[in-house]
Amino acid sequence: MLLAIAALVVNRSRSPAAPARAVAASSAAAVEPGQAGARLLVNTIPFADPHAAAVRVASAANAWGGARTGREATLSDRVVDYTIEARLDPIAHTIDGRQRLTWRNRSDRAVEAVYLHLYLNAFEGEGSTFMTEKRVPGFEFRSDVPVKHGDWGHIELKKVAQQGVKVPWHFVHPDGGPTTDHTVVRLDLPAPVAAGASTTLEIDFFDQLPRVLARTGYFGSFHLVGQWFPKIGVLELPGERGATAPRWNVHEFHLHSEFYADYGHYDVRIDVPEGYTVGATGEETGAPQVANGRAVHRFVQGDVHDFAWTADRRTAAPLEGRFNVAGSSPVKVTVLFPPEYANSAAPVLKATLDALAYFSKTLGPYPYRTVTAVIPPFNATEAGGMEYPTFFTAAGFRDPTPGTLASYALDFVTIHEFGHGYFYGILGSNEVEEPMLDEGLNQFWNLRMLRERGQRLPLTTDTLKRLGIAPSMAVFDANRLMGGAGDPADGLGQNAWERLSTSSYGSVYARTAAALNDLEKRVGRDALERSFKVYYERWKFRHPAIADLRDVLAEVSGQPAAVDAAFALHVYAASKVDDRVASLVSEEVLPLLGTTATDGRWSELTEDQRDERVGAARKAWNKAHPNAKDEAPGPFPYRSTVTLRRLGAAVPQTLRVSFADGSSETVVWDDASLWKRFAWVKPVKAVAAELDRERAHDLDVDRLDNSHSRKADGRASRRVAADIGGLAQSLFALIATL
Question: Is 406 a member of any domain?
């Protein structure tokens, strides 16, 4: 989502966050007091832990039906089938919907109740879990669009039936949220679903879209319709994402958590006024059916786990392109945009085509035949920067001149949102419990692509650029500066809602990218790329867990110790890296005071005698070397001592010490000690000491204290000035995009 701009470009990486709660794991059999129709269940299937986070145990080999070989009839092991009819009223901003939902029970027991997400109810009022968490100090949501009179939205179940029999339902709170939250509903089935069997539910529903405020809604005639239909939760089985028994993974809609659902097939008819341009997940099947001033568009897509669409009468003529590469089906790319952002359409198309090529080459073939990118209109920025399968929203700029921050931001948002199609879409990561697997991995791969493209983060204005002043920053350096380092409050593997703050969640983006960049330097670029290709091939369409990523990296890289150490420090824990050069001292090695025995006779060297001896030696040396420079060897050697301090986690460090004669010494600090001291005796003084000269640790809190020089060095001040300039420009860019 658009938070990636913030995570990359400014240290306010806005995104998921929420306060921790002390809540016992809820039971799926729980009945909310005062709600009629609920019954106690015989076969109780519990909810996923309300504190679920990074999974430590690898999934079973047969999880989610086992690895997809390509010989199966479908890309995924389809669990659900949705047939939906939606009629948009663009004046009232409402949707009348009818849905036929078929769900397959993959478990070994009968299921008496199923659970649906009603995500739009996050926006019905301040009593939802989403809005409750938004009021916690330290939390915010992206641009924090205020909700005014008439801006709220909701989804209402009008009718639910199973085989013609009415289905009773009531709201539940799997994470212990407020009773006023209505984002999860339990359906008590008149006919239980036997193990391995399927059932079909007929559902009538009604949406009141909110004014666009959090990934969905309307502005004027523009409608972004996301998380708009009743969506069934995921019944996880033993061996899947750490589950040891069947459980319902159906969390409330938290402030910044995103989505997780089963793969299936969608057949959706969208009824809009004639003249509205419609874009959606999947492929449109022929021309729309037009009658009585309205048009019905039909979109079909299999092997996806969500469906979103847009409709707007102001959309300009779409821009289209095609991607063709060996090993993949041809992909039609469509860019929908408003007239005011016409200059952004071509860059979005190019960035999408380039991303298709890069992700297909470095991860695996893109398996669908369409990609639709939508640029929201002016004043609907909150609808930008969001991903759905085969469909995403980008950003819009009036003048994204190449080489400017606007151009860079437009490219980055486009690449980022397309990239979600792999990590969130094809791999099916659980963005709610393990956002690192989507936002973090995606950010890392985006930066690798930008680096390969030769792109850098511009630190200039249009005026300075015209004057030929165009400083820039390497993308991984910018990532580190904007949130990749620092003192973390939460491990990368923590869930999306139990976080210290919004900024702590935002660190998932940049800090994951920095951690993986460090790991890549340690295991090697080729090894890491091979690992990610195997990860994609093995886990596509199967909802991997963090433990599955860890094990693939360890196996394929051939360096399990390095991988396990990185995950232990940064994924399963929150460890900062902060090693520094505490001091560098070079002192002459003078004759030693005291007594010595020579041929059985003892003599003493006093301080006065030493001073006399040293003075004579200096006089003789200066006479013999009248033109000697200060840093040249002298009459006595020097002992140079470097002291290192560790204020964070133990990571392998390399120290390089340079001497006045041009020589150097390199040593490795690879134990867990909190300090280390190294010393050398040489004819000349040490002039500089530097830790991590090769920049192997992007997670180091402060690189300025990694070096110590005996001479004045302006590099640090210049670096700070550049960083401040970069931050200022980044803040400007963020404000402009919001």
Answer: yes
In degrees and rounded to multiples of 5, residue 644 shows phi and psi of -110, 145
What is the rounded distance in angstroms from the CA atom of residue 711 to the CA atom of residue 685?
A: 12
The answer to whether 35 and 171 have CB atoms below 8 angstroms apart is: yes
CA distance 225 to 215: 9
d(CA 665, CA 655): 8
Residues 511, 615: one domain? Answer: no
In this structure, is residue 680 part of a structural domain?
Answer: no
Q: What is the CATH number of the domain that holds 555?
A: 1.10.390.10
pLDDT band at residue 241, thresholds of 50, 70 and 90?
very high
Residues 352-391 pLDDT 10s: 999 999 999 999 999 999 999 999 999 998 999 999 999 9
Structure tokens at 305: 């786990």
Q: Which two tokens stand for residue 250?
A: 């159906």
Query: pLDDT tens digits, residue range 574-607?
Result: 999 999 999 999 999 999 988 988 888 999 888 9
Q: Domains in the chain: how many in total? A: 2
Q: For Cα atoms 700, 701, 706, give the angle at the middle one, nearest 5 degrees.
A: 65
d(CA 75, CA 263): 10
Nearest to 659, CA basis, from 634, 684, 680: 684
The Cβ-side half-sphere exposure at 300, using a 13 Å CA radius, reads 2
Largest CA-CA distance found in the chain, in angstroms, rounded? 121
Q: Which two tokens stand for residue 413?
A: 């948002």
Checking DSSP bridges between strand 283-284 and strand 294-304, what pairing results, if any? antiparallel
Q: How confident is the model at residue 140 (pLDDT cuts 50, 70, 90)?
A: confident
Would 210 be classed as within a structural domain?
yes
User: Is 737 contained in some domain?
Assistant: no
Task: Say how far apart CA 362 and CA 381 lie, in whole Å.
Answer: 31
Cα-Cα end-to-end distance for the chain: 13
Residues 87 and 158 in one domain: yes
Strands 370-374 and 391-393: what pairing?
parallel
Same-domain check for residues 509 and 629: no
555 and 625 in a single domain? The answer is no
Name the token pair of 726: 């970069």
Lowest mean pLDDT among 400-414, 458-472, 651-665: 458-472
Pick the closest to residue 350 from 364, 369, 329, 371 (CA basis): 371
Average predicted confidence (pLDDT) for the chain: 89
Q: Which residues contact 631 (CB under 8 A, 6 or more apart)?
A: 660, 661, 684, 685, 687
Determine how β-strand 80-89 pairs with β-strand 264-273: parallel
Give the bridge partners for 97, in sequence order: 86, 205
**pLDDT value of position 7:** 38
Query: CA-to-CA distance for 93 and 95, rounded, in angstroms?
Result: 7
**Containing structural domain, residue 58:** 3-571
Contacts of 729 (CB under 8 A, 6+ apart): 405, 458, 459, 460, 461
Q: CA gyration radius for the chain?
A: 31
Q: How confident is the model at residue 28 (pLDDT cuts 50, 70, 90)?
A: very low
Per-residue pLDDT, 726: 45
Using the predicted structure, report yes or no on whether residue 285 has a pLDDT greater than 90.
yes
Query: Quick one: 550 and 597 in the same domain?
Result: no
Tell whether 597 and 521 lie within a shared domain: no
